Amino acid sequence: MNGVSASVDRLGKVVLENVEEMGKIFLLFLSVLAWMFRPPLKLRNIFKQMEFVGVKSIFVVVLTGTFTGMVLALQGYHGFKMFSAESLVGSTVALGMTRELGPVLTSLMVTARAGSAMAAELGTMRVTEQIDALYVMAANPVKHLIVPRVIAGFLMVPLLTVVSDFMGIVGGYFVGVHILNINPGIFIRNITRLVDLNDIYSGLVKAATFGLILSLVGCYKGFKTSGGAEGVGRATTEAVVLASISILVSDYFLTAIMF
Amino acid sequence: MIKLVDLHKSFRTQKVLDGLDLEIEAGKTTVIIGRSGGGKSVLLKHIIGLIRPDSGEVLIDGTDITRLGDRDLNEIRKKFGMLFQEAALFDSMTVGENVAFPLREHTRMKEEDIRRTVADRLNAVGLTGVEEKMPSELSGGMRKRVGLARAIAMQPQIVLFDEPTTGLDPVMTEAINRLIIETQKNFNLTAVVISHDIQSIFTVGHRIAMLYEGKIIAYGTPEELKASRNPVIVQFLAGSIDGPIRIM
Ligand SMILES: Nc1ncnc2c1ncn2[C@@H]1O[C@H](COP(=O)(O)OP(=O)(O)OP(=O)(O)O)[C@@H](O)[C@H]1O
Ligand SMILES: [Mg+2]
Known about the structure:
The structure holds two protein chains of two kinds.
Chain A: H1 2-36, H2 43-53, H3 58-81, H4 89-127, H5 130-136, H6 141-179, H7 184-194, H8 197-223, H9 228-258
Helix pairs in contact in A: 1-6, 2-6, 3-4, 3-6, 4-6, 4-7, 4-8, 4-9, 6-8, 8-9
Chain B: E1 2-11, E2 14-24, E3 29-34, H1 40-47, E4 55-60, E5 63-64, H2 70-77, E6 80-83, H3 95-106, H4 111-124, H5 140-151, E7 158-162, H6 170-187, E8 190-194, H7 198-204, E9 207-212, E10 215-220, H8 222-227, H9 231-238
Parallel strand pairs in B: 3-8, 3-9, 6-7, 7-8
Antiparallel strand pairs in B: 1-2, 1-4, 4-5, 9-10
Helix pairs in contact in B: 3-4, 3-5, 4-5
The complex binds adenosine-5'-triphosphate and magnesium ion.
Magnesium ion binds next to helix 1 of chain B.
């Protein structure tokens, strides 16, 4: 009996800690909003982060997008062949990419690349007293460090998602048309007939939300780092895990709301 | 004037400040000495509101900063410059951008004026032509001097120096001491210097305060401290192993 109540106790504690953490991240979001509209905005910092989050992620996003589209085509083909609906492969790839896999995979890749780096950078700044130095010079760290990163995440993840969607369809086309011998005209026509702009928009709304989540979580974890190099390592890991889980969970709810 | 009243600060079970009282006179250099790990850096961070005490007051020109909100605290902090023990340079910025940071943040100086001021401040700490270097490309002593240049960039009224000469060669130590003495005199600074270097203590300080077991146990002019009979001070200044200060 004691063992049970102890583990219920522990479960309760874990739940409470997580709820508390969510609350703190939300408060951070509010203060980012407040600082975002207080001039002067440091455009140079924002562009630097956009380059880091966006431009430097293009390669991995192209790669993951292409192969995901190729796999979707292959899997879809084997399924649809059973009731001779191979012509639907094109639209399946396109819908799967734009609604779901484009935004989710892109933001998971960006989490691994940039969200982790945000946590590591801010964590290092914390343990080497650079954040204290900002406070001492009466400069707000949220404005200087977190606002540019959150803006970059919010803007660049949707753009990367467009790239990923496009490459996925290209990959699907390649497999469908050149390997599985689906008629290219039918492949394309099915995409334009069955995919409408709302599918793309909803995917981009997801992407922007995920971009927000991964940059906020990365910054939050980095910002509250303590305990030297080990602490920075811990913050980085926690940032990736928490951001990835949050992305997948919120994906379910966004899907439930939008479709 | 800076006045610390009955400061208490513990980290978990470790008492670091234990009812500390200290008055730091305006327009003078006060040196704080004490054993390594004794809480000198913690004390300095209380003065600028980076650490809040468990109890007690930190009065800056009569305002208790331990009760201030962020905005008011920032106004007070604009009076300050601070050199961190490990320099705390922004490692994503060049040396020049580091020193220019407070100027860009709080003044509307023209870019060429900023450049000239930055070069001036760097010259003052014995560095030339390092503006384009990254902090990671500098030696420890050079980083410290860049930190010093950044701390005095805005010509603040109060400057806190956390071990400005630790890790410098004897010649550079002397040069930095002169720099502190001269800036203090020229701008009538209130300077608070933490130092382990006995010789520097006496050349730089108008007043010396000894922190021991969480309290200021002695305060006075260099002469007064040298003449002190307090065994803790005698042992500390002589650097001897025998006495009330135990190694472990
Ligand atoms: N953020 C913190 N969390 C927990 N303990 C701390 C923290 N900062 C300082 N301490 C502890 O407080 C004590 C005093 O530290 P402090 O850095 O003030 O020493 P110091 O007098 O500056 O020493 P040194 O001359 O070596 O720089 C140390 O024992 C340290 O472990
Ligand atoms: Mg120290």
